[in-house]
Amino acid sequence: MSTDASADPSRHPAPEALNPPVGQGESPLPAADAAYWEAAAASFDEEPDHGLRDPAVRAAWAARLRSWLPPAPAAVLDLGCGTGSLSLLAAEQGHRVLGVDRSAGMIERARGKLAGHDAAFLVGDAAEPPVGERRFDVVLVRHVLWALPDPAAVLRHWAALLRPGGRLVLVEGRWGEVDPIGIRAAELTALVGPLAARTHVESLVHEPALWGKEVTDERYVLTADLPRRHTEVVDVHLVLRRGDEVLLARRAGTGYADGLLNVPSGHAEDGEDVRAAMIREAAEETGLRLAPGDLRVALVMQHCAPPPARPRIGWFFEAEYGAGGEPSNREPDKCAELAWFPLDALPDDMVACSRAGLDGLRAGHRFLLHWQRSGDAVAHDPSCPGRAVVLDGPGPTG
């Protein structure tokens, strides 16, 4: 979706009108508003700060962008990219750009606009961009966050897409006088603060060249640099046992390892312990209503997919079939099927780290490393050397 609103977003419906409270039978804003942005694609660039057709407007945005982005070349993820006007400026400054927008019409125009540049574009939700394991130096977002239902959760997700020391560049504002919409700089600063080593807010009100006109409402950019210390995503994996069988899910539509099998899995959210994360992920993916007593830690594995992926810590929890109900596919947009397989005869078309974890568990191990190298496949390959290293005593390393 492109919620990169016009120079005056207040002329569009407020989020409350588009995003009724959950439970009233209505879709959240990104789904409800998708048709609006698809219809707007043809005329989107007519706004001065969208198409950047006026040389003065284009120069103003280029100068600002140069000051917000790190030295080139950097990997820039432009979310809610619209027709790619900011993406084009970033690419012209020597950066590698990936743009994401929910509108296929916007993406089609962006691809045409940046033909021949080091840029690619994907149709997808800015709140959960389909970038798989890729990580970026910059997440650039203009006039998107204000329209999303849970800004705090979205910001945590965007921060997780950055490499250590990466930067969020958030162009936002609050528009309108009678019923203002948007997000104030102070509010956004409070949301970003816990994630960042440094934040800086710069007013964009007193530069009419950015907007093609004089403006008086609140417009600003917030840049936030993440800590440079080493951090890792913590993920959780459900090993649901039915006798000698385990439940596997076939990935689909995620942008990473699609078509391969793995155990139902996800990652812990900020402030969430691993057991609570496993209970939540099990409910979201399989509909199981597990209790803490249904789970036992089977294995802990530090793993890393082939570069440029970042390391992760994986907690594998076992539960017995029957606990929490009957499993079913609750995320058909991300999972093509759920199926049972013998633990001692697992299929080869599995995500390599998931297969390594199950093989280690079957061999009786509790702690593993699984560190893939450049050139390795994301999929398990029985013809290649295993990458599993046992940390709790002698035994097969996969």
Topology:
Elements: H1 15-18, H2 29-32, H3 34-40, H4 48-51, H5 55-68, E1 75-79, H6 85-92, E2 96-101, H7 104-113, E3 119-123, E4 136-142, H8 151-160, E5 162-175, E6 181-182, H9 185-192, E7 198-203, E8 218-225, E9 233-242, E10 245-251, E11 261-262, E12 265-267, H10 274-286, E13 296-304, E14 312-320, E15 335-342, H11 352-362, E16 367-371, E17 388-390
| Beta content | 25-35%
Question: How far apart, in Å, are the first and last alpha carbons?
Answer: 43 Å
Unreliable residue stretches = 1-8, 10-32
Give the structural class: alpha/beta
Please tell me what the overall shape is: elongated
> Major sheet, described briefly?
9 strands, mixed
Structure description:
The chain is α/β, with parallel strands linked by helices and 398 residues long. It is 23% helix and 27% strand. It is built from 11 helices and 17 strands. The strands form 2 sheets. Strands 9, 10, 11, 12, 13, 14, 15, 16 and 17 form a 9-stranded mixed β-sheet that branches. Strands 1, 2, 3, 4, 5, 6, 7 and 8 form an 8-stranded mixed β-sheet that branches.
